[in-house]
Amino acid sequence: MASALKRTSLKIGMIPADGVGKEVLPAAQRVLESLGSAIPKPEFIPLLAGWDVFNQTGNALPDETINVLKTQCDAAMFGSVQSPSHKVPGYSSPIVALRKHLDLYANIRPVASVPGTPGPEVNLVIVRENTECLYVKQEVIEDTADGGKIARATRQITSYASERIGRMAFELALRRGQERAAPGAPATFWKGKPLVTISHKSNVLSVTDGLFRESVRGVKENSNRYDGVDMNEQLVDSMVYRLFREPQVFDVVVAPNLYGDILSDGAAALVGSLGLVPSVNAGDNFVMGEPVHGSAPDIAGKGIANPIASIRSAALMLSSLGYTEAANRINAAVDKVLVDNKVATPDLGGKSTTVEVTDAVLNYL
Questions:
Q1: DSSP class of 58
Q2: Distance CA 353, CA 214 (A)
């Protein structure tokens, strides 16, 4: 990924997809365009995917989108997808498919409060395994002898996927520890060694969650590289409780796909809104930024969607590519907007539009 630093241009696939994705991704693009020489000249390649595309073409993820991402792009940004809650023949979530096609096996979701804003002190990262668990989407439904129905879903956990997501979590914990210890680093409430918390439910699902737990633990236990990182465990149900009561006890959390999805969405409440929380889908050779919020069909088209999660996702994408200084500039500008609290979208209690919030971030940049 660091080789991107040598490029004269940065080709970014832009996939707005559905709902408010079409409104917040342009905000992220404006911010990226404003960075000047801090990054190579960005070139944006518009690409199609999503429920709207499925309704128009019968394919939620066109082959061209996959091919362009693989052959022409250095990175990508994804907006949001509107998936139906009922089964639709031929439809499958394009974001799930993209993660598989590009081997983006880690979904990394930082949740951090901004000093000077209301709420608890939070600075944690949830590292979610991105390729298996129940999201392999192997489901069947059958008729029963008594005239009813029975539905079954396959839950897949492998040692391979669990070990590499564990490695990603421990590497991230190492890097966070180094950043906190660096000269001139901002003060932080975290005083001890970096910590990886493994979240699971192996007391009930002893085979599948048991394998995840053992595989992640083995990453640390079988290498002295992570001697500087502490490790503990938290059953996922009790973790939900502690996440809201004591968020400050968590540093890096690693979890299977479904648990990581639920935990990271819930953790967004700690910092005020899903509209603030970014993520990247990361693999060994590609990264795709994606705001955590969904397509929000109730406000789509009204121009009031919060663009900050998308803007922060763009910063996280840049950081993953090695452009740390540019990413820090974006996050510092966003922090100033949040501290000022003069311009805010309705999810944060304000009356500002998507464009007005974006303008405020650009003003600080």
A1: S
A2: 47
What is the reported pLDDT for 114? Answer: 85
Torsion of the alpha carbons at 6, 11, 13 and 14, rounded to the nearest 10: 110
- Which of 205, 158, 361 lies closest to 276 in space, CA to CA? 361
Neighbours of 162 (CB within 10 A): 27
pLDDT one-digit tens code per residue, 44-78:
999 999 999 999 999 999 999 999 999 999 999 99
Active-site residues, by number, are 135, 201, 237, 261, 265
Interatomic CA distance for residues 169 and 328, integer angstroms: 21
- State both tokens at 188: 């932080």
Look at residue 16 and tell me if it is in a domain: yes
The torsion of the CA quartet 239, 243, 247, 252, rounded to 10 degrees, works out to 50
| The domain boundary residue, chosen from 240, 271, 302 | 271
**Residue span of the structural domain in which 190 resides:** 120-129+155-271
The three-state secondary structure class of 52 is helix
* Token reading at 281: 């889908």
SS3 for 204-233, per residue?
Answer: CCCCHHHHHHHHHHHHHHCCHHHCCCEEEE
Q: From CA 123, how far away is CA 190, in angstroms rounded?
A: 9
Contact 332, 362 (CB under 8 A): no
Give pLDDT, residue 39.
Answer: 95
Instruction: List, for residues 295-317, the tens digit of each pLDDT value.
Output: 999 999 999 999 999 999 999 99
Q: Which one-letter amino acid corresponds to residue 144?
A: T
Q: What total number of domains does the chain contain?
A: 2
Name the helix (H) or strand (E) containing 235.
strand 230-235
- What are the helix and strand counts (H, E) for the chain? 11, 12
243/179 Cα distance (integer angstroms):
24
In a domain, 134, yes or no: no
CA distance 128 to 117: 27
The predicted model scores a pTM of 0.89
Instruction: Tell me which residue of 84, 64, 8, 81 sits closest to 39, measured CA to CA.
Output: 8
Same domain, 124 and 250: yes
- Helix, strand or coil, per DSSP, at residue 353: coil
Tokens of 122: 């939070």
First-to-last C-alpha distance (Å) of the chain: 25
